[in-house]
Write a structure and sequence with these properties.
This protein is 39% helix and 15% strand. It is α/β, with parallel strands linked by helices and 361 residues long. It has two domains: 31-132 and 239-358, Periplasmic binding protein-like II (D-Maltodextrin-Binding Protein, domain 2), CATH 3.40.190.10; 135-232, Periplasmic binding protein-like II (D-Maltodextrin-Binding Protein, domain 2, 3-Layer(aba) Sandwich), CATH 3.40.190.10. The strands form two sheets. The protein has a five-stranded mixed beta sheet with strand order 2-1-3-10-4, with helices on both faces. Helix 2 (63-70) packs across helix 11 (253-272) and helix 2 crosses helix 12 (274-285). The longest helix is centred in the last third of the chain and has 20 residues, at 253-272. It is globular. The two termini are 26 Å apart.
Length: 361
């Protein structure tokens, strides 16, 4: 199992939260209705609609957004958020760049790769959601794959736009693996875990928050898996970030600043009161198809391993450590074969963050 930050944040879902669930089904997440997606908490002022894309389906890790919507933090800032599910970081990033969405969420380094290929459609991160990347390679413990080096010659699988898969060349270089020695198989996201445990593939790439909960439900808990978290193997990467077109941020600085501030309030509340924030996600889903146990596990992974770190405790939520970001950009540039290494200022704009004292936990 991946290492986790040592401070444990217990998530003990109260029984009363079940009122939001309706009947449970086997599907883990669902797309909310258009009505649920628009925050209209404040009827005393005109709200500006902001379109937002998730990186994937609405899940417990989206508790910061759900909490900020449900508690009216966006409405207080004059914003009505209309959000839609995503289809992986690569797809979300392309849609943000093309103007389908004003703001969205995606893997920071997938954004860097996009900018290298599309310099005229530059994107910029304005806040970090996951201080630590959830990207990982997972193998069953009975396959004999006990180290990254033993992945050589194996069959790996992931959806085409999977962020961990896109970062594979960087992970392979960091761990001394011949990146070209593996065979990649495209797989539908909803089938990844089921086909994996049937032996169709030797390992999968994933976000631990996406794949570990359904694997646990299928009978493959942490003790039956070998999980190679990128962050534990020489890649101290950041994870998902709030991303905008640079031109949009330049034209709408106060709007972006207001959005970031409301979102980070939701993230603070999620860390301080995870039960309440999980209930907000369940309420937004509306149709009752979320699996309570899986979503509880998913949020616990984020609380233990992704949202909070010693860096966040010292510097507050949402920001970056410049030296750390610079090092990861050098690794990514080498792994992807960039002609030059982007600077932290090319990638992240911290001017939209609230003051540090408003981002502490």
């Amino acid at each position: 199992m991946p290492k986790i930050w040592t401070k444990f944040i217990a998530l003990a879902l109260v029984a009363g939260s079940a009122v939001y669930l309706g009947s449970c089904a086997t599907q883990t997440t669902s797309q909310p209705s258009a009505t649920a997606q628009t925050a209209v908490n404040n009827t005393n002022r005109e709200l500006r609609e902001v379109s937002f894309t998730l990186s994937w389906l609405l899940q417990a890790v989206d508790a910061p957004l759900a909490t900020a919507i449900q508690k009216g933090y966006f409405a207080e800032k004059g914003i009505a958020v209309k959000f839609e599910r995503g289809y992986g970081s690569a797809d979300s990033i392309n849609k943000i760049a093309s103007g389908v969405y004003d703001i969205g969420e995606g893997d920071l380094y997938s954004m860097v790769e996009f900018n290298q290929k599309n310099p005229n459609d530059k994107l910029v991160a304005v806040a970090i959601k996951f201080n630590r990347s959830p990207a990982a390679i997972v193998a069953l413990d009975n396959t004999g794959i006990a180290s990254p080096k033993q992945l050589e010659g194996k069959r790996l699988a992931a959806p085409a736009g999977d962020a961990a898969r896109r970062l594979w060349p960087i992970f392979a270089k960091a761990t001394g693996v011949n990146a070209d020695s593996v065979t990649w198989n495209n797989v539908e996201p909803k089938l990844r875990e089921a086909l994996f445990i049937k032996g169709e593939f030797d390992a999968i790439s994933c976000y631990i928050s996406s794949s570990l909960p359904p694997l646990k439900k299928l009978g493959y808990g942490p003790d039956r898996l070998n999980t190679f978290l990128y962050a534990d193997h020489g890649l101290d990467l950041y994870g998902n970030a709030l991303i905008v077109r640079e031109s949009f941020a330049q034209q709408n600085p106060e709007l972006v600043r207001a959005f970031v501030g409301a979102y980070l309030r939701g993230l603070q509340d999620t860390i301080r009161n995870p039960d309440e924030s999980l209930a907000a996600v369940l309420q937004l889903s509306q149709d009752g198809l979320m699996d309570q146990a899986q979503e509880r596990d998913r949020l616990q992974i984020a609380l233990d391993s992704l949202y909070v770190s010693p860096e966040v405790e010292q510097n507050g939520l949402g920001g970056v450590d410049r030296a750390r970001l610079q090092k990861t950009l050098e690794q990514v540039a080498e792994g992807f074969g960039f002609a030059e290494v982007p600077t932290p200022e090319d990638v992240f704009n911290g001017s939209f963050l609230p003051p540090k004292e408003q981002r502490t936990i």
